[in-house]
Structure formats: structure tokens, C-alpha cells
Amino acid sequence: MPTIPDLPPVTQGLTLYHVAIGRGTQNYTCDPKDPNSIPVAAGASATLYNTTCMSSIAPLAMAQLTGSALSMPTPKGNERLFPAQAFVSGQHYFTGPAPTFNLHTNSHNYGIQFAGLLNKVPVPEQMIQPDQNVGKDGSKPVPWLKLSSSNALSDTAPGVAQQALSSDGSPVEEIYRVNTAGGSPPKTCDGMKKDFEVEYAAEYWFWGR
């Protein structure tokens, strides 16, 4: 997994469980009465594509995948992610304020994780490259994150355990969002709708015991 200086490392004792490329949108809201206001994050929606094998056998190609994915049209339904031909492994969305990773499809069950934010690190300016991780709309890459499934609050998902177990009974404890491409909003709400989306792609690394 790529590293960034200010993002804490994986907790000792955890092992890699799943790797996926997320391709979708970061969502925002604006105050239509104040064009100088700053867009407010309002969750995200993305399809997750299984790149677990690719992450180990072709790490250099994997590092370029988010930029390539963002430059291509978003796959529809169960279409594979070009150019890696990665198949769908789940969906990413928000349950209330909690980032949710539903890795349960008709062909497999890798579990459902409800996460909470541990750390957030902006992508260093020297790592922002227009031909690699900047969207066609000029959107810069969203920050890299470290999430914890045990940090999800039970009241954001009534009736659901704070820590979802994977299909083999091993809990996913930490999730990293790295190698992001696009997704950042404009600096102000000037000219923006009340609700809008910005396309993005990112690597998601799931770690458990």
C-alpha cells in the first residue's frame, strides 16, 4: 500500500483483507444565497472494483489505475473497470454520517463495514499531476484517509453492529483511502447548484485480523 508521511501506518497485527478501486462521485451542497460560501461535503457514492490480486502482482500499474479510471466513462451495472478489467466487489455510500462499504454481491460476500474517520491528510502539492490525478473538470484529488470500522456510531445505523464481520468471521478494522484522483469541490459556491457531484476515483485498502 502506498504511504504518505502524515498518515498513520496500519496497526500492528492487522493483515490485508481486500483492495478495491472506487469509481463514483463525491457529493457536496452549497448555500445558493451566498456565492462566496464554501461547499460542504455531503457524502459519496461509488462502485468498488476488486483489485486485490493486482495490488500484489502489478503494484506499479495499480498506482496508475485511479487516474486511468477517472479519465474513462463510469462503468454501468456490473461492467468491469477498464483497463484493469476488475469486477465489481461492492458499493460505497453513506449511512447517515458513516461511510459504508457494502462488499456483498450476488457472487461473493466480503462483509459490510460502517466506518468512522481516524485521520485525514491533504494530498501534497508535489503529488498533484494534471495528467494523472486531476479530473477533467480541474478537480484536485480528495484527501487520503484512515478509517476505523470500530469508530462507526451505532445511532447512524440503527440495529447494525458497530463493527461488521466479514464473511469468514474476521472483522475489518481499518480502511485506507489513498491514491485519490479528482473529487475535490471548487473553492467557493459561485456558479454551483445547491447540490452537486464531483467525479473521483480512489484506492481502498481493507485491513483486518
How does this structure look, described?
It is a single chain. The chain is mainly beta and 209 residues long. The chain is built from 3 helices and 9 strands; from the N terminus they run ββαααβββββββ. The protein has helices spanning 52-57, 59-63, 65-71; strands spanning 15-29, 40-50, 88-95, 98-104, 109-114, 116-121, 144-148, 172-182, 195-208. A 9-stranded antiparallel β-sheet has the order 5-4-3-2-1-9-8-7-6. A hairpin with a 2-residue loop joins strand 3 and strand 4. The chain starts with 14 loop residues before the first strand and ends with a strand. The model is unreliable at 151-170 (pLDDT under 50).
Strand order of the largest sheet: 5-4-3-2-1-9-8-7-6
Principal-axes shape call: globular
What's the average pLDDT? 88
The residue fraction in helices comes out at under 10%
Class from secondary-structure proportions: mainly beta
Number of helices: 3
Report strand %.
35-45%
Largest beta sheet, briefly?
Answer: 9 strands, antiparallel
> What Rg do the Cα atoms give?
17 Å
Order of helices and strands: EEHHHEEEEEEE
Low-confidence stretches: 151-170
How far do the termini sit from each other?
17 Å
Number of E-state strands = 9
Descriptive tags:
9 strands, 9-stranded antiparallel β-sheet, mainly beta, 3 helices, 209 residues, 9% helix
Give a concise summary.
It is built from three helices and nine strands, in the order ββαααβββββββ. The protein is mainly beta.
